């Protein structure tokens, strides 16, 4: 088997681990000198200079390491993706809760505003009813009450009453009280008329009318 001896002699000069194409080696040797299973398979030179089939494990170490790194990286990316998905879900849930709370607060504010409007309308109606009762009284009787009424309350009442109804009452009031009321009304000429508080309403005498 001179061809095999020559091939082995040539391989002896090659560095250990050198990979040799099995097909090229088969072409140099007689077919009966080759292992059919090794024909066309990659070969390598071992530490003794012999030509042996390339070990699948030895030849794929770098590839296996690369695949392991890729698998680890893929696992890492999948874990990161799951974490991002979880964070996105938490953010969505938080935004939903904020929107629900905002809607609840808006509904409560609307309800409070409605109650305030109703209260103001009720107080305005009560005040208007009290003023109307004063307007139906005799000027002298109303003047006697106005002489003793708290000035802040009297200002609201007098400013709300019709000037035609207020004039005869003012004429029946004491001069000092009528003068003070006139000065205060002039100072409040630019102030809104509908600003009576519940305390002001409570200070008004509960007149049944005549």
UniProtKB/TrEMBL annotation:
<dbReference type="Pfam" id="PF03448">
    <property type="entry name" value="MgtE_N"/>
</dbReference>
<feature type="domain" description="Magnesium transporter MgtE intracellular">
    <location>
        <begin position="129"/>
        <end position="182"/>
    </location>
</feature>
<dbReference type="InterPro" id="IPR038076">
    <property type="entry name" value="MgtE_N_sf"/>
</dbReference>
<dbReference type="InterPro" id="IPR006668">
    <property type="entry name" value="Mg_transptr_MgtE_intracell_dom"/>
</dbReference>
<protein>
    <recommendedName>
        <fullName>Magnesium transporter MgtE intracellular domain-containing protein</fullName>
    </recommendedName>
</protein>
């Amino acid at each position: 088997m001179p061809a095999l001896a020559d091939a082995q002699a040539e391989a002896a000069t090659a560095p250990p681990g050198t990979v040799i194409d099995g097909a090229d080696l088969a072409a140099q040797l007689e077919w009966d000198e080759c292992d059919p299973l090794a024909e066309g398979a990659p070969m390598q030179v071992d530490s003794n200079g012999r030509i042996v089939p390339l070990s699948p494990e030895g030849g794929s170490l770098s590839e296996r390491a690369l695949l392991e790194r890729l698998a680890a990286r893929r696992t890492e990316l999948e874990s990161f993706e799951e974490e991002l998905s979880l964070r996105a879900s938490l953010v969505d849930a938080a935004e939903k809760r904020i929107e629900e709370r905002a809607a609840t607060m808006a509904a409560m504010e609307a309800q409070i505003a409605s109650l305030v409007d109703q209260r103001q309308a009720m107080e305005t109606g009560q005040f208007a009813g009290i003023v109307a009762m004063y307007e139906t009284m005799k000027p002298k009787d109303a003047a006697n009450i106005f002489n003793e009424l708290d000035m802040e309350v009297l200002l609201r009442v007098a400013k709300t009453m019709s000037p035609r109804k207020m004039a005869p009452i003012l004429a029946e009031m004491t001069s000092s009280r009528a003068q003070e009321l006139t000065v205060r009304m002039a100072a409040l000429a630019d102030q809104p008329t509908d600003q009576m508080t519940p305390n002001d309403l409570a200070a008004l005498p509960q007149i049944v009318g005549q």
